[in-house]
Amino acid sequence: METSEKTAWLSILTNVALVAIKTTLALLSGSLAIKADAIHSLSDVVSSAVILIGIKISKRKSGSFPYGLYKVENLVALVTSGLILLAGYEIVREVFAGSSRLPPQQLLLATVGIVLTIVITWLFSRYELRKGLETGSPSLIADARHIWTDMLSSIVILASLIGNVFGWNLDRYAAMVVVVFIVRAAFTILLDAIRVLLDASLDHASLNQVREIILDNPKVTQINAVRGRNAGRYKFVELDLSLNVKNLKMGHRVVEELKRTIKSRLDNVDHVLVHYAPQTKDTLVYGMPLDDDGQTLSEHFGEASFFRLVTIDLRNDTILQDTKQDNPYLQEDKAKGLKVANWLLEQNLDVIIVKQELEGKGPGYVLGEAEIEIMLAKETLADDALRQARAAIGKSWLEDRP
Question: Is the pTM of this model over 0.70?
Answer without folding.
Answer: no
